[in-house]
Amino acid sequence: MINEKYKAMLGGKSIIRELSEYATARGNEIGYENVFDYSLGNPSVPCTKGYTDAVISLHQEMNPMALHGYSPSTTIPSVRQAVAESLNRRFGMDYSMEHIFMTTGAAGALAHALRAVTQPGDVVLTFAPFFPEYTPYVEGTQANLRVVPANVEDFQINFSAFEKMLDENVMAVLINTPNNPSGIVYSEETIKKLAEVLERKQKEYGHDIFLISDEPYREILFDGRKAPYPSKYYSNTLSCYSFSKSLSLPGERIGYVAVNPKAVDADILVAMMAQISRGTGHNCPSSSIQLAVAEVLDETSDLSVYETNMNLLYDALVELGFEVVRPGGTFYIFPKALEADANAFCMKAKKYDLILVPSDNFGVTGYFRMAYCIDTEKVKRSIPVLKKFVETEYPNR
Amino acid sequence: MINEKYKAMLGGKSIIRELSEYATARGNEIGYENVFDYSLGNPSVPCTKGYTDAVISLHQEMNPMALHGYSPSTTIPSVRQAVAESLNRRFGMDYSMEHIFMTTGAAGALAHALRAVTQPGDVVLTFAPFFPEYTPYVEGTQANLRVVPANVEDFQINFSAFEKMLDENVMAVLINTPNNPSGIVYSEETIKKLAEVLERKQKEYGHDIFLISDEPYREILFDGRKAPYPSKYYSNTLSCYSFSKSLSLPGERIGYVAVNPKAVDADILVAMMAQISRGTGHNCPSSSIQLAVAEVLDETSDLSVYETNMNLLYDALVELGFEVVRPGGTFYIFPKALEADANAFCMKAKKYDLILVPSDNFGVTGYFRMAYCIDTEKVKRSIPVLKKFVETEYPNR
Fold first, then answer.
1. Cβ(A125)–Cβ(A173) below 8 Å
2. Do B3 and A272 touch (CB under 8 A)?
3. CA A372 to CA A357: how far, in whole Å?
4. Fewer beta carbons below 10 Å: N end or C end of chain B?
């Protein structure tokens, strides 16, 4: 008989996907250029020429049996080595090859990191607002996800709530900075305080607490900002990365886990991840794509459009009177809705062909997310529409 | 704390991998050309020019945002459509797009198929000799794998043992034809009888029993043979495929599940697989590789070397007095060892730099596997060595 759990999941459609499908359907009616679709976090700039050239030359020049051969179960050594060196160069870390495990994007990275450092029944904490897919990612490991309420002041960590929830059943803490959906970047002060709390609680409870740091937006930073690299501040850190956003390769499913060399059992965690793969059918990302990204590790697509769009939207939102925290990176912004019910707010916006995502699924009520990975021209055209929407629907604010 | 289960798995190294590592190390000592390495099932012929050209032209000509964009959660529609049409053309099936789910190779396909049609605690039956990775594949789903003893006569199905083990807790039966490690192909008679038993037991127990058919060797057939397509004979069939062997792309991790259109819940199984992906971190195979294989679905690499090698080895083994069933396909042969303890037999062979894999891990004692996906020239050179080994170690047979 078919599996009841997965059958039941068919009912619960993602609100983001539903809105995105609505936007596409509406676009078929009135022309997609007339739909201000802020629903999906899909990169809007092409991958680098370096990546394309690397793929082509690998296929033209490399022995096809080597290019397309099985990866070792711990993934391709030369690629792991190149990733380690790139991270050491960029973040002053001390990784070697054995700390790197290549994965099918950040989803694959989180699947391995979570399984490696939790047992069924353990608790994993994350912080609102959070990426809704964390729920199936964590539940898929048989651990339980609990969500620390947001600090809506600035979307840094709500430490008083965190300390209350960080009981002895918590074996891992999952952070995402730069953050989807808020766009904020954890400050060095936040990361240091987080590390201090975790160190203290590890001692108090007599067991390790791993920090799982989900970092697909690491390279999309605004205002000349540098983001602190969380693993530098806390030894028991597994950094989970995807090239989806930095190289605009979301469909290629390529990323990695980087195990802090000072983490407990750092010498065996990657070998364990290779074992985890056997049970999930992961079995290494594509060999040719591992080899291609290894040649362009320090490149990024031209990410400047996201900052241009953020500035336009942020200024417009502030001018219209929205409460909004200025994003430090990503391609998201997370303003407060103009009524308590964010769903009602976003439903009203839909009438103006403004596709906004209500915040409830991100673990906060009363906000909405705009994914501004769209053409700047469209962002500009959307601003008068946003103004009209606000002035018409909320005339007495 | 790190996960105890995966840590414990670190001890249990695959005998195949151990032997392969030994062969590599020994090759470093005496030259790899002098090691007759029959350990690993790694294709020894290059992928097709068609595949390479498809990858290059996709990267030269297609919009990179479309080429590298997220796949829909049920994978790329045009690719699913092309796979359905290819299977319909080749096997007289009636698939449409919604029955096809693209996966990261056969491992990914089995991970989804098994999860879709079992609940934790269910029993999955397979037949010895079997691919040892079926154990972690099935255990990863929380179902239990039980192995029906081999029919050593011809390595078709041992039906009397099968019927005894097919109790009401069995929710899925996992077959692999052409078979790793025996190289045999299930006859039409075997498949028909299997279907008849399953139909009868479904009625008797009042629940569905799914057939999961693992078919990565489907295109490697000898003696002009055609293999029956199992799904044609039994409605509740999920066919799991990989392009690893037919196109020599094992490292690219690309394959699919094809759900028989007449299967129970055929209309929702693929959507369920998309849900399963969320919990395992699978999230679709690489987009560019999905698109590339879709252009060469009816191609294969030049697979004739495997038949050449099989003939050389089969004749030599028969002449040396081995009991051996003639393979109908794959690149494996599975002779009876010359003593009851296959491990001892293979250890003795190692002294002659003949790397043979003992059968115990495949669920049968007293046999050994040779993976003859190596150069024909090397197969030829190995035959006098095999002769010397047999005559020296087993002089009084």
1. yes
2. yes
3. 12
4. C
Say how far residue A178 (Cα) sits from the centre of its chain.
Answer: 8
In a 10 Å sphere around its CB, with 0-12 CB exposed, 13-18 middle and 19+ buried, how is residue B319 labelled?
A: exposed
> Residues of B357-381 as b/e, b for ≥16 C-beta within 10 angstroms?
bbbbbbbbebbbbbbbbbeeebbee
Kindly state the DSSP code that residue B261 receives in the 8-state scheme.
T
H or E stretch at A213: strand A210-214
User: What one-character-per-residue DSSP string does A6-20 give?
Assistant: HHHHTT---HHHHHH
Q: How far apart are CA A107 and CA A123, in angstroms?
A: 19
Q: Write out pLDDT tens, residues A154-186.
A: 999 999 999 999 999 999 999 999 999 999 999
A227-261: burial string, b at 16+ Cβ within 10 Å, e else? bbbbbbbbbbbbbbbbbbbbbbbbbbbbbbbbbbb
CB contacts of B101 in chain A (<8 Å) are none
- Burial string for A114-134 (b: 16+ CB within 10 Å, else e) reads bbbbbbeebbbbbbbbbbbbb
Distance from CA of A235 to the nearest CA of B (A): 14
Answer whether residue A1 shows pLDDT above 90: no
The two tokens of residue B385 are: 């060595």
Instruction: State the smallest CA–CA distance between residue B273 and chain A in angstroms.
Output: 8
Nearest Cα neighbor of A330 from A310, A358, A313, A302 is: A310
B-chain residues within 8 Å CB-CB of A63? 46
The answer to whether the CB atoms of A137 and B4 lie below 8 A apart is no
Q: What is the pLDDT of residue B82?
A: 98
pLDDT at B1 over 80: no
Alpha-carbon distance A392 to nearest alpha carbon in chain B (angstroms): 36
Query: B73 to chain A: which residues are within 8 Å by CB?
Result: 17
Chain A residues touching residue B115 (CB < 8 angstroms): 3, 6
The residue of A21, A39, A58, A104 whose CB has the most chain B CBs within 10 angstroms, and thus the best one to mutate to test that interface, is A104
Size (chain B), residues: 397
Tokens of A376: 């700047």
Closest-CA residue of chain A to B57: A56
Closest to B254 measured CA to CA, from B95, B53, B86, B102: B102
Please report how many Cα atoms fall inside a 13 Å half-sphere around the Cα of residue A32, on the Cβ side: 11
Identify the three-state secondary structure at position B318.
helix
With a CB cutoff of 8 Å and minimum separation 6, the contacts of A167 are A123
CA B172 to chain centre: 17
Contacts of B252 in chain A (CB under 8 A): 68, 286-288
